Amino acid sequence: MGLIVQKYGGTSVGSIERIEAVAARVAARRARGDQLIIVVSAMSGETNRLIALAGSISGDPSPRELDVLVSTGEQVTIALLVMALQKLGCEARSYTGAQARILTDSNHCKARIQDIDTRAMQGDLDQGRVLVVAGFQGVDDIGNITTLGRGGSDTTAVALAAAFQADECQIFTDVDGVYTTDPRMVPTARRLDRITFEEMLEMASQGSKVLQIRSVEFAGKYQVPLRVLSSFEDGPGTLITLEDETTMEKPVVSGIAFNRDEAKLTILGIPDTPGVAYRILGPISDANIEVDVIVQNVAEDGSTSLTFTVHHNDMKKAHKILQSVGEELKARSVTADSNIAKVSLVGVGMRSHAGVAAQMFRTLAENDINIQMIATSEIKIAVIIEEKHLESAVSALHSSFGLEEGSGTLS
Ligand code: ADP
Ligand code: ASP
Ligand code: MG
């Protein structure tokens, strides 16, 4: 007998029929003898609906109240799932984040889990009940409801698996595993049997929303065996693993991530003197705006320019700051552009292979796609391109690096 944590995402619990199908899967597993902790998301579309309701009252709702509001989505699902389990004769009990004693900091809307007091739930588990826990939510030390950021139910599941030292944490979703790239964009994408934590973390942070970044960080830190599976069909899914000896045989590129969430800001014609980058990026960071890719260039006339990307929600704010810095520095121009996308190749095999960047740039050139910015890490190469080229860039790179079923690797 083992202890398994399973998480079912929004689409998997998107209707009463689907909640009943999840209940049937859970009851069958319980009948095989395993102890089960089930984490559920809100029914699909519900979190967006609640956020839109808040938006219809205020453009800037209080984060505390937003958390009180959006956490209700998951509360609906836990109760419905427990009712469905009870109908099947499977003993179960629901837990909100606070009842499950998922303790977080007080950073509303993006709280971090600090501790889970397992005692409250352990008694029910010992009695043979299935625990059904609301994902995405916790409670701070003075009892405020908090939420963990979009996609946060993944992190609830992994944190519970770590706290209970579960045998496996299974993330059930609407695809049957982690693919070489988003299968909704590239239909020839291939399911991976395994991917390392490091690669999965890079894929998630570069835009693959199949797992929330924090959940992968947690799983890596506490060595939680993590698997992504389909809630609609049986199959092995994708196991997220520690890097192992089979890495030697791994393809150079394991996957391609992309996102459309960034915007690019440029300040042109500023003096090329020490401290200039700080004078520009200091006020951006003081305004709590995260900067991703940065490029600095010196022009022939000795002036310099700086281009950087931020989340597109922060573009207006960053543009305003840059305009006032630009006046001080007598910049030639300040521009903002949200028509961009980022495409990233990810693979631990890159560490031991040269030529990946050259092949990436050649492929983009052959498809007439201009590269605006480049960023690299040991296991990633990312480029910023015009948004309208995103699909063709991802498809071309996917086939150039042999990521389809039955293809080779680096050419
Ligand atoms: P859930 O509601 O179950 O949490 P999500 O929508 O958060 O589901 O995540 C699943 C989605 O992630 C898939 O439908 C797919 O479109 C997207 N996705 C993005 N990149 C990948 C990838 N590399 N492999 C699999 N799915 C991906
Ligand atoms: N319901 C939340 C969201 O839509 C959390 C989750 O689904 O993981 O972001
Ligand atoms: Mg998700």
Total number of beta strands:
20
Instruction: State the major sheet.
Output: 8 strands, mixed
Overall CATH class of the domain at 3-174: Alpha Beta
CATH-derived architecture of the domain at 3-174:
3-Layer(aba) Sandwich
Bound molecules: adenosine-5'-diphosphate, aspartic acid, magnesium ion
Category by helix and strand content: alpha/beta
The DSSP helix count reads 12
Q: Strand-residue fraction? A: 25-35%
Helix percentage: 25-40%
CATH superfamily of the domain at 3-174: Acetylglutamate kinase-like
Shape: globular
Radius of gyration: 23 Å
Low-confidence stretches: none
Q: And the CATH topology of the domain at 3-174?
A: Carbamate kinase
**First-to-last CA distance:** 47 Å
Provide the residue-averaged pLDDT.
Answer: 94
Strand order of the largest sheet: 3-6-2-1-9-11-12-10
